């Protein structure tokens, strides 16, 4: 299956991606509505969030360019120093931009 990269094709791709995203978000909330929350389920949910984050970050740490590595290092250092995620993510973006601009 292929979609041409015309304006209509791009809008169709965006619409399909939006529907899939909404389906997974609402589907997950609907599913969790029927599962009783106990200690085991809460542990699974918190562990799953960490494993998804690691699955995204680790490949970038090994295969990413210098900008990605600078962003990861900066984000980690600021997160450990301040404990606040938003400033750490912002600093990571800035670090990647600066490294990519100058190199």
Topology:
Blueprint: H1 7-33, H2 39-63, H3 66-82, H4 85-102
Helix pairs in contact: 3-4
In short:
This protein has 103 residues and is mainly alpha-helical.
Q: What can you see in these coordinates?
A:
- The protein has helices at about 5-35, 40-65, 65-80, 85-100.
- The chain folds into 2 domains: about 1-35; about 50-103, no CATH class.
- The longest helix is centred in the first third of the chain and has 27 residues, at about 5-35.
- α3 (about 65-80) runs antiparallel to α4 (about 85-100).
- The chain has 4 helices and no strands.
- It is mostly helical and about 100 residues long.
Main sheet characteristics: none
Strand segment tally: 0
The 3D shape can be described as flat
Radius of gyration: 19 Å
- Unreliable spans: none
Keywords:
single chain, mainly alpha
């Amino acid at each position: 299956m292929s979609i041409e990269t015309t304006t209509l094709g791009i809008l169709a791709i965006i619409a399909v991606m939006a529907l899939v995203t909404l389906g997974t978000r609402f589907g997950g909330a609907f599913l969790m509505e029927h599962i009783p929350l106990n200690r085991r389920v809460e542990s699974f949910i918190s562990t799953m969030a960490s494993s998804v984050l690691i699955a995204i970050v680790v490949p970038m740490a090994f295969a990413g360019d210098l900008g990605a590595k600078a962003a990861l290092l900066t984000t980690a250092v600021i997160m450990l120093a301040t404990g606040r995620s938003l400033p750490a993510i912002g600093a990571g973006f800035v670090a990647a931009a600066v490294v990519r601009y100058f190199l």
